[in-house]
């Protein structure tokens, strides 16, 4: 029996050496067939991801959410104890608000200048007539020659001072 197995093994090695690709293909197909069975995939996902997911959910439910609820309760209690007028509170936080709006405005401008891909060169737009005007902006009927004969569009020009960049760029985001 041992001699027969040895001879068969030698024949298999000889055949393998003649056509390695054939045997590698058969072996790869077998591995893929064994691996991509539903039970194997379920086990892999369960072992790899589900235990981590369950730990995160447990942590969220037992620690994070209760801590946030406790912090919210403390915040509400602090607000209830605060006897200042809304005018006083607004005056106190106005400098911080303006600083943050300036920073956000600068970030939005950076995004508009360097990240945005859908900008249109204003030189390609021809104003036709004023449609409306307010303290915040002026709206014109304009011609945009993007398609052959041109297309009539509404052109909104923001008229706020440059210092109010936050408001202008927030308005721009609404229009996009």
Automatic annotation (TrEMBL):
Ranges of residues in domain Protein kinase: 125-176
Binding site for ATP: 156
Keyword terms: ATP-binding, Nucleotide-binding
UniProt keyword annotation of ATP-binding present: yes
Keyword Nucleotide-binding: yes
GO molecular function: ATP binding; protein kinase activity
InterPro entries: Kinase-like_dom_sf, Prot_kinase_dom, Protein_kinase_ATP_BS
Protein name as annotated: Protein kinase domain-containing protein
Lineage of the organism: Eukaryota, Metazoa, Spiralia, Lophotrochozoa, Mollusca
């Amino acid at each position: 029996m041992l001699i027969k197995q040895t001879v068969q093994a030698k024949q298999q090695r000889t055949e393998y050496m003649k056509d390695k690709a054939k045997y590698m293909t058969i072996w790869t197909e077998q591995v893929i067939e064994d691996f991509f069975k539903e039970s194997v995939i379920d086990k892999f996902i369960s072992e790899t991801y589900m235990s981590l997911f369950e730990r995160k959910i447990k942590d969220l439910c037992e620690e994070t959410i209760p801590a946030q609820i406790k912090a919210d309760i403390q915040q509400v209690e602090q607000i209830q104890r605060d006897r200042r007028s809304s005018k006083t509170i607004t005056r106190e936080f106005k400098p911080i608000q303006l600083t943050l709006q300036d920073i956000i405005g600068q970030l939005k401008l950076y995004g508009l200048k360097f990240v945005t891909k859908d900008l249109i060169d204003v030189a390609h737009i021809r104003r036709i007539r004023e449609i409306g005007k307010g303290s915040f902006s002026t709206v014109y009927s304009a011609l945009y020659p993007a398609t052959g004969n041109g297309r009539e569009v509404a052109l909104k020009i923001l008229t706020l001072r440059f210092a109010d960049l936050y408001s202008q760029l927030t308005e721009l985001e609404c229009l996009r």
